[in-house]
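## retry 2 of 3
previous attempt timed out at serialization; input unchanged, resubmitting
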Amino acid sequence: MALFDLPLHELRTYRTASVAPDDFDAFWAKTLEEARVHDLDARFEPVETGLKNVEVFDVTFAGFGGHPVKGWLTLPTGTTEPLPAVVEFVGYGGGRGLPHTHLLWASAGFAHLVMDTRGQGSGWSDGATPDPVGSGPAHPGFMTRGIEDPESYYYRRVFTDAVRAVEAARSHPLVDASRTAAVGGSQGGGITLAVGGLVPDLAAIAPDVPFLCDFPRATTMTDRDPYREVGRYLKAHRGRTEQVMRTLSYFDGAHFAARGRCPALFSVALEDQTCPPSTVFAAFNAWDHSDKEIAVYDFNDHEGGGPFQQAEQLRWLPARL
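## retry succeeded, writing output
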């Protein structure tokens, strides 16, 4: 598809019309306080993978509600001193997959933890973390699970898991907690933004074509999933738009971005119909740090920069860690 959103010069100044709830910060402080009542109990079990240049650990830690969340920790073989760490979050429908699919960051000399996403991992890569919390009526997918109230919304659990994943990574003796970054693409990019707004002392973040941003615009601009799940839910549940948008306002990447306090490298694709460019720029323009960049891919859809953006990250991130 050709360009369908605002022209680039307008995107660079675009701001979301969404307003953060008055109790946004209190809501998230309470959520994380409740999660931390449970012992993090981060465990790292060595696994044999046949890989010679990295060591892999099967990770389990307590996320939202104390529920066990899985992940992989990968270290360069022979690591003896603490390393800078990259914590990665995966895209919609995917899970942590298999260890040999996550070699980039350890190959570059980082400790790398990839978090499994609760309840997902059956779309394009497998996962091992169930979501034991139910919800009211929801459209198939994850976008409307518990959407009746911020307390019950699915992404409250996921974002809390993600903060705890950073804490789990930092708890490992071969991780330098002061040099920790968060990265991810699409849903993983949206989770990265949430972590960037909730963890005040990250060294950097790198969200690629991030999802979960500027919900009022995204849910009415694209007819592509996952945002369209919200529209189909509201088509069935007439009259609940205000209630749903109130819930989503607690999870909007643009509001987390306004609380960001570290360097950030974004990416956006101008033909992206899954995460429209204006929704990405809503978060980028709100990101509250002077050291920020955005890579623009003029003729790409939701694949964004792909390996070209990975190369950008390998150029940009080491200087911040």
